């Protein structure tokens, strides 16, 4: 990934209104051009999906928020309460589907396979089932209503490949793809995202107590610095980011096919 060359704009307090309006217009244009009835958005109670929901609200498109807890995990982490706070504030239509039965049904329980795997692979193989099941729910729900699935992944996550292939990395359009994490916070403040969402630690909700920065081993501010200036300010972190880019390159590349 080439730094600086892929970041053609930067959102700050002075221009946030301009960019929020441009992003909202872009969202509405994507929906109208495809003759869709609206959008479906997976709501985790986090800041990225909350910002995208508010951009959809600004765009005046019909967006349905879908919360997909694994059992009681959203209640345990207060994500359900945060999501409902946003929903109540903006009066979003919403739906809740418990993915636990589907996830449990798809989980491999063969002890021989499990014993032959490393601990980290066992944890991630289980954790990644959840976003892939959520993607399936979102796409069925979208097709039932002739809608698009809107993505919420930001540029910092993409820089280090921090998303699940065929899971939260699957969507029809994404307004945050070129937006750093600090820009997400600038948008959140302008758009009126509840402070309870703005000030909590970012988490993908992969397991109880999980936080993005702890799992990544770096802060979003460091990743943003790498994107904007070419360095996080710490050579060790820079090397970790480059290593993660190499390891996740397959998530962005075209699927290899034999051509004879």
Précis, in short:
It contains 14 helices and four strands.
CATH class of the largest domain: Alpha Beta
Q: With helices defined by DSSP (H or I, 4 residues minimum), what is the helix count?
A: 14
Order of helices and strands: HEHEHHEHHHHEHHHHHH
Low-confidence stretches are: 1-5
Reported by name, the CATH topology of the largest domain is: Rossmann fold
Strand line-up of the largest beta sheet = 3-2-1-4
- As for the number of domains, it is 2
| Principal-axes shape call | globular
Write the layout of secondary structure elements.
Blueprint: H1 16-33, E1 38-42, H2 47-59, E2 63-67, H3 73-76, H4 79-90, E3 94-96, H5 100-106, H6 111-115, H7 119-127, H8 129-144, E4 147-149, H9 155-159, H10 181-191, H11 195-198, H12 212-216, H13 220-229, H14 235-247
Parallel strand pairs: 1-2, 1-4, 2-3
Relevant terms:
alpha/beta, Rossmann fold, 2 domains, four-stranded parallel β-sheet, 14 helices, 51% helix, globular, disordered N terminus
Written account of the structure:
- This protein has helices at 16-33, 47-59, 73-76, 79-90, 100-106, 111-115, 119-127, 129-144, 155-159, 181-191, 195-198, 212-216, 220-229, 235-247, and strands spanning 38-42, 63-67, 94-96, 147-149.
- It has a four-stranded parallel sheet, sandwiched between helices.
- It has 260 residues and is α/β, with parallel strands linked by helices.
- The protein is built from 14 helices and four strands.
- The protein is globular, with a radius of gyration of 18 Å.
- The two termini are 30 Å apart.
- The protein has two domains: 15-200, 3-Layer(aba) Sandwich (Rossmann fold); 213-250, no CATH class.
- Helix 2 (47-59) packs across helix 10.
- Helices cover 51% and strands 6% of the residues.
- Helix 2 (47-59) links the parallel strand 1 and strand 2.
